[in-house]
Write a structure and sequence with these properties.
binds tryptophan, Rossmann fold, Tyrosyl-Transfer RNA Synthetase, about 325 residues, mainly alpha, about 55% helix, 14 helices
Length: about 325
């Protein structure tokens, strides 16, 4: 059966960007429509990736579990998917080291994600950070996963995984697939500030999956607006313009036809942003309410969460060890 792998770093609680860009894709592949292609799905929290930038130890300890709870609350199901913590499968780290022998330093240094992080943390341009995409390639390829549900920002990392798969196959005769991204319609959720993407590490940019209606309303209220009337900007209006950002949220939560309606109003009689924001906040909350209810149940059942984590690691390790054995043999290490 075709395999899927995805992961999210343990840097904080999940937000709408993570949910729409990654988790929704994970759910779609976990629960294919009747008669559709079925997949074996591996979903992890990338806790080892979290140490590639400065972090707080206690927060990591907490978040590596919270992300699993968010996954379960969102509908990832241990009966259908293997749900685990990356660090519990140390095989990923071993394979990553082998992979680092088939990719150059120059290639890693030129990645936009590496450059961005070095700008953010100039005193922490570590080997771990440089190796970030190599470990990610290992996460995916150790399960020979061909499909990876992640947001559009992860595309450069997937390209590295493809290069590594190719190089491994031609040098050592392995049979790694070239993984491709599985895109959702929320592959790029803009920041609430109107600049760049929604991100855990940018204060004021996100709505958490656990936010209540009042919090959502006050965050949505801060979305930048304009006069409510004018010409639609050209190109990718969701990246930068006030109306573009607002409309992309409308499309994601109220649907395409609502977005069209508002677009017409914008170029016609004008939009009343107050009403729009009210409608938008309510519909975001409606989408999140069932997740929040499920989360409460999970918080009251820590034994269940422990069991999911333990069993997930056991299953993932079995699959990972198979690949590792084969790679060691092919590389002359056994
Ligand atoms: P963050 O940038 O908030 O720290 P991560 O880098 O941990 O988020 O991303 C986890 C997953 O969520 C990745 O698959 C990423 O592509 C996706 N993702 C993050 N932010 C967004 C966004 N604004 N829109 C769509 N997908 C996103
Ligand atoms: N780099 C991803 C992010 O920032 C997290 C991640 C680590 C990942 N390993 C992965 C995503 C493997 C998909 C597959 O969100």
């Amino acid at each position: 059966m075709k395999r899927v792998l995805s992961g999210i770093r343990a840097t904080g609680r999940l937000h709408l960007g993570n949910y729409l860009g990654a988790v929704k894709g994970m759910l779609e592949l976990q629960d294919p429509p009747a008669g559709g292609q079925e997949y074996e799905t591996f979903y992890m929290v990338a806790d080892v990736h979290t140490i590639t930038t400065p972090y707080n130890i206690e927060e990591l300890r907490k978040n590596r579990r919270e992300v699993i709870i968010d996954y379960l609350a969102a509908g990832l199901d241990p009966k259908k998917s293997i749900i685990f913590q990356q660090s519990e499968v140390p095989e990923h780290l071993e394979l990553a080291f082998y992979f680092s022998s088939v990719i150059t330093i120059a290639r890693m240094q030129h990645l936009p994600t590496f450059k961005e992080k070095v700008t953010q943390h100039p005193d922490n341009a570590t080997m771990a950070l440089l190796n970030y995409p190599v470990l990610m390639a290992s996460d995916i390829l150790i399960y020979k996963a061909g499909l990876v549900p992640v947001g559009i920002d992860q595309e450069p990392h997937l390209e590295v995984a493809r290069v590594i798969a190719n190089n491994m196959n031609s040098k050592f005769g392995t049979d790694f697939p070239e993984p491709i991204r599985f895109a959702t319609k929320g592959e790029y959720v803009p920041s609430l500030t109107g600049e760049g993407k929604m991100s855990k590490t940018v204060e004021g940019s996100y709505i958490n999956l656990t936010d209540d209606l009042e919090t959502i309303k006050s965050k949505v209220a801060k979305l930048p607006t304009d006069s409510g009337k004018g010409v639609m900007p050209e190109g990718k209006p969701e990246r930068g313009s006030a109306i573009g950002t607002v409309l992309s949220f409308v499309e994601l939560f109220l649907g395409k036809s609502k977005a069209e309606q508002y677009k017409k109003m914008y170029t016609g009689e004008g939009i009343r942003y107050g009403d729009l924001k009210q409608e938008l906040s309510n519909s975001i909350y409606e989408e999140l309410k069932p997740l929040q209810e499920k989360r409460k149940e999970l918080e009251n059942n820590p034994e269940y969460v422990d069991k999911v984590i333990k069993e997930g690691a056991e299953k993932a390790r079995m699959a990972a060890q198979e690949t590792l054995k084969e790679v060691r043999e092919k590389m002359g290490l056994s």
